Each structure stands twice: as C-alpha cells, then as structure tokens.
Amino acid sequence: MSKIPGKTETIENVELPTFDPSKATEQVRAAAEQGVEQAKEAFSKLSSDAETTQKAFESTFEMAKTTSNEVSLKMIAALRANAEAGFTHLEALATVKSPSEFFELQTAFLHKQIEKSAEQAKALQAVMMRAAEDASKPIKDAFEKALKERKAA
C-alpha cells in the first residue's frame, strides 16, 4: 500500500468481485419462489380465517334467532298472564257492592300487578342477558382463537 501525501489513500492490487449473471438469476428465482410460497401460505391462512369467521357469524345468527324466539315467547307469556289477571280483576269488580270494597280490590290488584311486572321484567332481563351472551359467544371464541394463533406465530 502506498500513501500519497494529503488526505487520500490508495489501495493497490485489490481484486473486485466479478458479476456472475447465472448466480444472480438463480438468486432472483429462489427469492421469487420463496415469495410465491409465502403468498400461498398467507392466502391459505386468510382463506381458513375467513371460513372460521363465516362459521362464527352463521352460528351467531342461528343463536340470535333461537334466543329471539325465546324472548318473544317470554313476552307473550307475560302479556297473556297480565291480560288474564285484568279480566279476572274486571269480573271481581263487577260483583263489588260498595265503594270501599272497590278501592280495596283495586289497590290489591295494582299492588299485585306491580310486583308481577317487576318479576316479569327480571325474568325477561335474565333471558335477554343470556341471549346476548349466547349470541356473541361464537364471535368471541373465534376472535380469542385468532389472537392466540397470532401470538403463537
């Protein structure tokens, strides 16, 4: 190595690597094949995830349909019970002989209806809460599974 006065240095007898096109082609081909393989794997995973999501949504919709039927039946039963209680109360009012008896029957009926309405509301709330949990469970499970798989990968 010889030094030239100043700030620069020169290197003598240095061999530069030669460019071999056949090796470059092989490397590009290998990189392209690897990219294609990774794309196939990603597409396969995406397809599998989409299928899982579709099944979760189908299950959710089926569960929502079932639970909405249950909620409807509960509401119909409550309406029927209230209507029957109202007709029974009207029959009792038809036999009233004094205003005090009327007020006594009316007060007892209203008191009973308020208690019954509170019970019906609690029962309906419980059914609706369970329905919401049941309907969201398939989506929640699919989401949790996807998160676990992503963390494992």
UniProtKB/TrEMBL annotation:
Pfam families named in the record: Phasin_2 (PF09361)
Residues of the Phasin domain: 51-142
InterPro entries: Phasin, Phasin_subfam-2
Protein name (Swiss-Prot/TrEMBL): Phasin
Species, as recorded: Mesorhizobium tianshanense
Classification lineage: Bacteria, Pseudomonadati, Pseudomonadota, Alphaproteobacteria, Hyphomicrobiales
